[in-house]
Structures are given as C-alpha cells and as structure tokens.
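Sequence in, structure out. Go.
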Amino acid sequence: MSEVQSSRFKVQSWELPTPGPWPLTPIVALALLLGVAIITGPVWATLQIQDDRGQTISLAAPPQRIVSLYGGLTETLVALGVGDRIAARIQGDETLKNLPTVGTHLQPNVEMILALKPDLVVQGGVPKGMPALKRLETEGVPVAMFAPRDFPGLFSMIQRLGVINGRADAAAALNRKMEDRLQEVARRVAHLKPPRVFFEVRYHNLLAAGRGSMVNDIIHRAGGVNIIDSHQKLAPFGLEALIQAQPEVYIIQQGAMNRSPEDIYQRPYFQELRAVKDRRVLVVEESLFSRPGPRSAEAVELLARFLHPHVWGK
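Output:
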C-alpha cells in the first residue's frame, strides 16, 4: 500500500504484485474459460478528504456529476478544470448559467438533487442548509461542506477539492498563484499605517462584516483594519455606533444581500462620517469580496489599491 497524506486529506492506493508472464496453469486456464478476469494491476484507488464538519468523504474515483450549492465552490471547480463535471447550481450562482438550478443555498431542493444522481454534492457552510445535506447523506449521496473564513482556510478548501477531484496538482498551482499575488500586496503595504475600515454587508438594518469573515482577512491583507470587534461573520451595527466609530474608509458591497444600496452621499446622517466627508467610499462586488474562491486574492489587490493609492500609482 502506498499513501500520500496531510493532516486534512489523503490519497490511498492498493496494488497487487505484478510478476512476470504467468504460466498457463490449470487454474488460469479455467478462469479464462469461465470469463473471470485476473487482476494484475491496481485494484482500486480511494480519494479521501475531511470536510469542515470533520466528516470524511471517500470516493473510489473522481466524481463526474457534481452539484454545487455555493457560488464560490462553482468558481473553484471551474478554476481546477472540472467545470464540465458540474451537473447543477443554485439560484444566484452565475458562474455557469447554462446549468439547471436546484433551489437556493439556504433551501436546496433535495428531490431535484437526487433526480440528477450526483456522485458528489458540495456546500458552502450555510447552517440553514444543513438539514438538506443530512437528507442527501441519508440517501447515500457523498456531501462535502466547506466554510473558509480566511485565506489559510481557503487554500485548504482548494487543495481538498483538488484531491477529491483528482486535480491535486492543479489545486497546488492555483494556490501558489494566489499566494504570489498576496505576497506582492504584503510587500507594498508593509509598514504603512492601516486605515480603519467599515464593510457594509447590508444597508437597511445595517449589517457589517465581522472578524470571523473572509472579508476581515481581505481588509487585513490589503493593509487596513476592520473597525468591527465582533468575531462573528456578520455583525449588526447601529448608525449611532457607526458615527461614533468614525471609519476612515467605507466599503459597500453590492449583490444578493445588498441589491440596491442607497447612495451613501444621500443617506440621512451619513454625511457626518469622516469617510463620507473625505469621499473615501468604495462600492464592490459582493461575489468578489464575500464569496471565498479563486478571485479572493484579486479582491485584496483591488482594496489595497484603494486604501494605499500612493504605493500603487493611480
């Protein structure tokens, strides 16, 4: 048995010994006569990873029909070169628009998924979607859940997706490319004073990105500091507290959670914010910043250029 293993994923294979040419013994002749295969090479290979629930997922071969229940996972699978294996997506996932949809990330349609006969379902760590995952597992469908909240978690997710899809080398190459981009940003922003940043997830009933989110690591690596102290992924934040905190930079995400945010320069009381007075407001794509995936390093670069334009050039 040969084994390649890390702390979170491994690939195992078993092989029988392969001696020289076999003599045509009576047993071999009988096997040939009866049409019984004599195996002389690999018997099977197991692709095995552990997801972010701590569950072990083992497949005998790379999956050929994948249902993706999170847009960032769809993007990652495409980046790994297995987009043609994806059989369905969720509503709002625009990566592969020609694919059928199977509900939302909060409420995936189990019956539709089962009808597609997937050999792997991947989900993005949405708690409300967990009952659907359990039902799928009860029906014998392999399910892997990933919930990265920072770049180390993202790199681990990419590598594990590479392993389970037989694309470990492609995953390692993708991670190296992203790490190179992050290192270049880190070199440029080192020793610079980090501006205090507020990231708006939703305007009405103001919701901010907390320190338990991918956005927090993006802000940090871009050379800023998140003003939200909460270690949750999302944190409610009142207008009075926002005015008291006085962020130097205000970022507004636009997407499914914040479809049509009002112009910040027209919002009541927002003119009292330092970031608004200094016109240091940036509107960003929600899927780029809040969806961990192969474009997350691009989000760091974009934000770093906004926070520290003098070291990037305009």
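Check: The domain at 2-171 is CATH 3.40.50.1980 (Rossmann fold). Confidence is low (pLDDT under 50) at residues 1-44.
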